[in-house]
C-alpha cells in the first residue's frame, strides 16, 4: 500500500488537466467568475497549484522508497486522503455541487493540516523529511487554509444564503475566521515558513483582486487581507527567531 501516496499525488494534476479541458463542465475559473465575492483572489495566485502538485509527487516518490517507520506510517494515510480529496474537489466544483465541494475542501484541509502540524512537532527528523515531507505538505495545507474560506464565500453567494449586494460584513467575518486558523496553526507549528508563504501568496492575490474590484466594500477587504498577510509574516518571523531549531522546521 506504500504506492498509494504517489498514485494519489499523480491524480491531482491529471484531474486538473481534465478539468481545464472541460471534461466535467466549465473550468473552475469560469465557475468562480459566475459568483463574484469579496474573497476572490487574482487569477495568477492559482499557479501555486503547479508547485504544490510537483512537491506532492516528490513526497509520494520519497515515501515509496523509504523504510517503514511508525510516525511516517501514521502521516501517509492522511496525506493520501488529502491528495484524493483535493483531486475530487475540482470536478465537483466544476459541476456546480458547491456544498459537496465545500465539504471536500474542508476535509482535505483537515487531513493536510494534521500532517503539517505533526511533521512540525517531531523531535527527530527522518532523512529527507524537511524537503520531501514537511515542505510539500505544509505548502499544501497553507494554501487550503485560505482557499477553504474563499470557497465558503462562493458557496454563500451561489446559494444566496447571505446578502450578495452587501457582502462586506460577512466577508470580513470569514476573513477573521481565516486569520484565526492561520495564526493558531502557525503558532502550533512554531513558525512554519512554507505554510505561511502559501497563505501570504493567496492574501496578496486577494488584495490585488479586490483593489480593482467594483464590488461595494472591496477596498476595505483588500486592506484587511494585506494586513493579515503582514501579521502572519511578523508572527512567523518572531516564532522562528525565538525557537531553537534548524531553519527547515525539524530538529535533527
Automatic annotation (TrEMBL):
Spans through the membrane? 40-62, 74-93, 99-119, 131-156, 168-185, 192-208, 220-241
What's the superkingdom here? Answer: Bacteria
Signal peptide range equals: none
The record's keywords, sorted A to Z, are: Membrane, Transmembrane, Transmembrane helix
Write down the PANTHER family for this protein, in alphabetical order.
Answer: SI:CH211-161H7.5-RELATED (PTHR33802), XK-RELATED PROTEIN (PTHR33802:SF1)
Q: Identify this protein by name.
A: Tryptophan-rich sensory protein
Q: Which organism is it from?
A: Lysobacter soli
